[in-house]
Amino acid sequence: MKRFFTIAIIGLSTTLLVASCGDKAAKTADTEDVKPVEKKQMGDGTTGIAMAFYYQDSIATQFGFYKEIDSMIRVKEMNFQQELEGKYRAYQAYEADIQKKMQNNEITGYQIEEIQQAAMQKQQSIQQFEQQRGAALQQESMKYQTALMNKIAEAGKEFSDKKEIDLLFFYQKGGQITFINNAYDVTDEFIKYLNKRETELMSGFEEDVKALDGVDLK
């Protein structure tokens, strides 16, 4: 079955500034320097924008929440495949048993029509299961994909504001972008920010997924 959990997240960025306040003896807070991305001249040279990019594949392998959702979908897909294969094996065993009985003359001519109808019903049942359950699993995967994309996009907007980034791209091999200078790479900083906010991003996630019920995600 095709995978539907490839996520293209657009508009994300880097760097978190945490300021400690209150009684320093009671608590401490991590602080990170905010270093805005240098603005590059574009067009006629009268205006400039700050650009950056991240490697999309790195999000899938290094962001904990992403990996957790992906693993959950993989398990559901595997369970579906195993159940479908079990139904096919059961039907093959049924066919083999009928064939054996026919060879041993254990089936009369009056029973053949009934057996053919039963075989057709079993085939239709398997096809219906494959189509309906497969479609439902695809829709579920797309809902999780969309909800996760929305969560990361929300965090990415806040991240971009802190980093003062105007334009952020994702990069992957075979994508629309042929080349980006590594000087614009903010992947590590972005992933660090996402993982630091993982608990917050997970909050209300299932509710976000349910809210997509009935939404056309194609």
TrEMBL record:
<dbReference type="InterPro" id="IPR024930">
    <property type="entry name" value="Skp_dom_sf"/>
</dbReference>
<dbReference type="GO" id="GO:0051082">
    <property type="term" value="F:unfolded protein binding"/>
</dbReference>
<dbReference type="InterPro" id="IPR005632">
    <property type="entry name" value="Chaperone_Skp"/>
</dbReference>
<protein>
    <recommendedName>
        <fullName>OmpH family outer membrane protein</fullName>
    </recommendedName>
</protein>
<dbReference type="Pfam" id="PF03938">
    <property type="entry name" value="OmpH"/>
</dbReference>
